[in-house]
Amino acid sequence: MRARTHLKGFLAEQRGAAALEFAIVGPMFVVMLLGLCGYGGYFWMSHAVQQVTNDAARAAMAGLDNTERTALATAALNAEIGDYVWLERNKATLTVTNASDRVTVAISYNAADTPFWSMKGLVPMPSSTISRSATVRLGGY
């Protein structure tokens, strides 16, 4: 009988309940915040790479042949990529493909060294290689 009384008293005690709840919920909350930061950085970098790709494709449109288009796209990439905080030129690879009436510019960016991918062990992250392309029509509208 006496053990039941002690058990009821123990179960009715409320001191420390908030600390116990935080010990359970706190780590999940921190992982969710890290995921939010990681995916926010991924979406930002993907958008930035797409914008640089779009501008490089627009610049390449002015070229007369594939060599000149590649040079114009490379110059646009070199000029613009420094405007974005986390993007570095040496991690971007540019490819210009020429079709009969279209030119496609593709940029592949290796983002593995950025702080956003340092959380990869805690949060499932997408591939650290961001690949984007843009196609523009060449004249004759």
Automatic annotation (TrEMBL):
Spans traversing the lipid bilayer: 20-45
Keyword check for Transmembrane: yes
Keywords: Membrane, Transmembrane, Transmembrane helix
Domain of life the protein comes from: Bacteria
Record-given protein name: Pilus assembly protein TadE
Domain TadE-like: start-end pairs: 16-58
